[in-house]
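[agent] plan:
  1. take the single chain provided in the ticket
  2. run structure prediction with default settings
  3. attach structure tokens to the ticket
  4. add a short note for the reviewer (M.T.)
[agent] executing step 1
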Amino acid sequence: MERLSRMNARRQLAIETFLFRAVFDTNVIIAALKSKNPNSPIIELLQRWRQEEFTLIYCDDLRAEYQEKFIDRSIDTPVWMLF
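[agent] step 2 finished; step 3 output follows
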């Protein structure tokens, strides 16, 4: 039973290894939140990330930049709601 569990863990790791990773520039996030076109490719990026088709990579400094730009552009969505 333990051997099966280890095999499943390795299989899961292999699957996760092949997932794409992305870093969204601040402009991408802002454009997606401000877009009124439901067919926008930028909105599709956020939808695909939320569907876990890829992993979004960010750091604390980038999150702080997102928050700063949200305030500058009067966007009410808190940055923590994105992550």
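[agent] step 4 note for reviewer: Helices lie at 2-17, 26-34, 41-50, 60-72.
[agent] ticket updated
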